[in-house]
Amino acid sequence: MKKIFAFAILLTSSLAGIAEDATDYKHYIGLNLGGGLGGNLSGDSYVSLAAIAESSIVFGYHYNRNSKFELEALYSLKSSLYLGRLRTGRGIEMRDETGISLLANYRFYPICDPVKLYVSGGLGAYFQPISLNLNVSTTDKKGDRTESNGEGNNNISLIEKYDSPLDSILDSIAYKLKVGIDYKIIQRLGGIVGVTLGERLLSLKALKVPDITLEVGVRYNF
Question: Any idea which UniProt keywords this protein has (predicted)?
Fold first, then answer.
């Protein structure tokens, strides 16, 4: 029985030490990798399914035991399959989209013992360098059918058209929400595992389901 109590005390002390290690250093840098799924049901126009791959670099500041602030540069690649509805006469479109988000995140740790559970929220600018349409078979508003088999030069997608200037602004702002666990690997080096929800603010107005990704990462504290 004494050995069991001794082991319990040692385990508790070790976990508490892990929670306090990060506060021994004021800053950290890290790398995240993630993958997930997205999709959308857009009224009478289309249904979309997407596979998502993400990578990001973060620089953070340990404010206190329960709070961290970080800057994140995130690159995302989304391969989407758009399925047009039969009654609209639209066809199938495959599109690869790349995006870059520059986010300011706040991480809050409501639980530090025995594990470091955190919730995170971020907001920032979104840029879309290029969007490629592949294997397109669609019908325009006049009913004229257009096709492209993806050979030769890929078709660059048309510039987005917005209903108002506010929509244009909302489409250039990205958000990211995350729930995850922080853990120690070795001294100064830690890891994270989390589930994220993210998209652009315009998607909230359109009631679009956010992209869901599983994210893993490493952190170096200094």
Answer: Signal
Count the domains in the chain: 1
Q: CA-CA distance, 46 to 168, in Å (whole number)?
A: 21
Is 60 exceeded by the pLDDT of residue 8? no
| Mean pLDDT to the nearest integer, 86-101 | 73
Task: Please state, in angstroms and rounded to a whole number, the distance separating the CA atoms of residues 49 and 60.
Answer: 33
Do 17 and 216 contact (CB within 8 A), yes or no? no
Highest mean pLDDT among 42-56, 82-96, 102-116, 129-143: 102-116
pLDDT tens sequence across 75-88: 999 988 877 654 45
Q: For residues 81 and 135, is the Cβ–Cβ distance under 8 A? A: no
Tokens representing 28 are 């950290």
Domain hosting 83: range is 2-221
Write the CB contacts of 14 (distance below 8 Å, at least 6 apart in sequence): none
